[in-house]
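INTERNAL AUDIT FORM
Audit reference: QA-55
Scope: verify that the stored structure record matches its stored sequence.
Auditor: D.O.
Record contents follow.
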Amino acid sequence: MKVEIGKLKVERLPQSVASLSTLLLALSTLLSCSNDMKDINQFQRQAPPDQEIVDAHIWRSDEGKLQLELDAPRIVQYRKPDTRTIYPKGVELRFYDSQRYLQTFIRANKATSYDDKNIITAKDSVVVIDYTNGDTIYLEDIVWKSDEDIIYSNHPVRAVNGNRVTYGDGFVSDANMTNLRITRQRGIIEFEE
């Protein structure tokens, strides 16, 4: 269609051609944007969990014998980019012997289990109570490598046993907490009750 305005001739495009050119302009604007890797990684971190449990109370047994009790206000599990289970509001674990006597109690305000690596980390006000020998250990964090049967921390430790308090810069033990050793001990204080 042609329109004449004075001596100027203007040719109008058909409606479909105008719509196509608008669409091409919008696509070229979108495609010219680039994604920063930080933005992509942030999006991946914010991906929804694969599974979420609220007010969890879990028992693990072997041949009908209770081995472990787990209590957590919230459990969040992700499968990608790596399989991990997060306890963002804390966790309490109780380990039992074959006679169903409580052996060890562990509490932490945060914990993560890296399932593919067989590593569990707990942090923020960790408390470990060993009922067999009476030790109570206070730590910033703890790492449990289940395939190596080792529990350790490289941060300050305070161990209380009866009227004795031991300070150190870390500790290492087997998974049953029977061979506990405080590393780089800084002092032992004995007090009367």
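Auditor finding: record pair retrieved intact. The helical segments are 15-31, 37-45.
Action required: none
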